[in-house]
Amino acid sequence: MSIGNLKTEGNKGNNFPYQIKVLQGLQCVCDQLKELNVDTTAIEATLLDIEAAIGNLATEATLQNVETNTTGVARTPGIIRPTAPGNVNTVAATFYSVSVANVGLADGTVLGENIKPGEVLNFSGDALNNFFTSFDYDATGTEFIIIYIS
Known about the structure:
Elements: H1 16-35, H2 44-57, H3 60-68, E1 77-80, E2 85-87, E3 97-102, E4 108-110, E5 113-115, E6 120-124, E7 136-138, E8 144-149
Antiparallel strand pairs: 1-8, 2-7, 3-6, 3-8, 4-5, 4-7
């Protein structure tokens, strides 16, 4: 099987989770049919039809069609320009991405790590409905520009 094995989406070329679920589903169908205790030779053609249908359901074109026809969710952008310690969570309850630029002349701290003047850091949940609940920074003695999506 190679359905959904895209290098740009999901598991980046690893479709093992999809394959194992399909195989488990087919095994479940076979197990259920065995429990019926009937002559399965008549059912074999039906199983082959089911297998063919599964193969046709998730072609690459179908996956791309689903991807382009998903309904988006409105998000709100925000920007702050702090010069003291803080947490983006004090501005937004949940946020989906955050970027920090140190535009001052001294070092600052982001998530406990040093950020030098001129450095830019980007963080993203990278998937539908993933989000951050906390993002600590300390811009004491310098100036940050922080943009976020909530």
